[in-house]
């Protein structure tokens, strides 16, 4: 049984009546890092929101460990491209929001949130407000909020694309470090990216989407050894291969 199964998902925005997703199917195994890449406007964000249970597919279904995803779930967390932090709450309070729907004492919530902020190198910034932080640190808060509930599945929509390249690199490394611990959740990740290098650096599997109405063009397994050396011939060759599949 696949960890996450996306099964013949189609979607049309009612307002425009233009089909966006056309019969999308793929699966993500336990401990797999899967990236979705595709042209701008092809429906990557829409698809990720459908998997999160935030919007309903027009047809098709998604299964997490064999169970239908039919609405938001505490087993699934989301990281947004623009961070989506609440500016009137402190960083600690923003992270605690990730536990808002989990029944526990507030003191326990606070302890878990503080531990996660510490793990993501934000110690000392607990009581500051998000607007005082750099983009990279804001996304660390966004990531902390997503991870604090121990989700089985982590969804990330272009999480590094509003950061400069150096900051993005350091945050990618942090995410890969967090995921290395297989005893801890999340078990699997689905990330939307428009950056082929980033997808090759991070993923075990890359799903390449077409232009609208969007179908799955290719599914490519990336079995390069980790940590990945972006300068190596194998890495470059994989990037080139994905580029040509993307463009064909
Ligand atoms: P991507 O993330 O791949 O760039 P999106 O999922 O954001 O693509 O959007 C897919 C398509 O759906 C685009 O053509 C976009 O204009 C359209 N779209 C996105 N959101 C809405 C909406 N709320 N109502 C109508 N159309 C939308
Ligand atoms: Mg998008």
TrEMBL record:
Keywords: ATP-binding, Nucleotide-binding, Transport
InterPro entries, per database record: AAA+_ATPase, ABC_transporter-like_ATP-bd, ABC_transporter-like_CS, ABC_transporter_ATP-bind, P-loop_NTPase
Transmembrane segments: none
One GO MF term attached to the UniProt entry: ATP binding
Residues in ABC transporter domain copies: 4-236
PANTHER family in UniProt: ALIPHATIC SULFONATES IMPORT ATP-BINDING PROTEIN SSUB, TAURINE IMPORT ATP-BINDING PROTEIN-RELATED
Protein's recorded name: ABC transporter related protein
Organism: Candidatus Parvarchaeum acidophilus ARMAN-5
């Amino acid at each position: 049984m696949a960890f996450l199964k996306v099964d013949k998902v189609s979607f049309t925005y009612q307002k425009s009546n233009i089909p966006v997703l056309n019969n999308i199917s793929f699966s993500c195994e336990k401990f797999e890092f899967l990236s979705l890449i595709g042209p701008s406007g092809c429906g990557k964000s829409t698809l990720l929101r459908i998997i999160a249970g935030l919007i309903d597919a027009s047809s098709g279904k998604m299964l997490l460990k064999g169970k239908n995803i039919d609405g938001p779930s505490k087993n699934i967390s989301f990281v947004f491209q623009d961070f989506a932090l609440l500016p009137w709450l402190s960083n600690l309070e923003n992270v605690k929001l990730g536990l808002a729907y989990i029944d526990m004492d507030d003191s326990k919530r606070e302890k878990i949130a503080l531990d996660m902020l510490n793990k993501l190198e934000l110690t000392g910034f607990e009581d500051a407000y998000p607007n005082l932080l750099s983009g990279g640190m804001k996304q660390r808060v966004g990531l902390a909020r997503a991870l604090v509930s121990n989700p089985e599945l982590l969804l990330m929509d272009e999480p590094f694309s509003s950061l400069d390249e150096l900051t993005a690199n350091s945050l990618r490394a942090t995410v890969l470090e967090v995921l290395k611990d297989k005893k801890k959740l999340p078990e699997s990740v689905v990330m939307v990216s428009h950056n082929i290098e980033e997808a090759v650096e991070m993923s075990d599997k890359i799903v390449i989407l077409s232009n609208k109405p969007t179908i799955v063009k290719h599914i490519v397994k990336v079995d390069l050894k980790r940590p990945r050396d972006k300068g190596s011939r194998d890495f470059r060759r994989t990037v080139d291969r994905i580029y040509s599949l993307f463009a064909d």
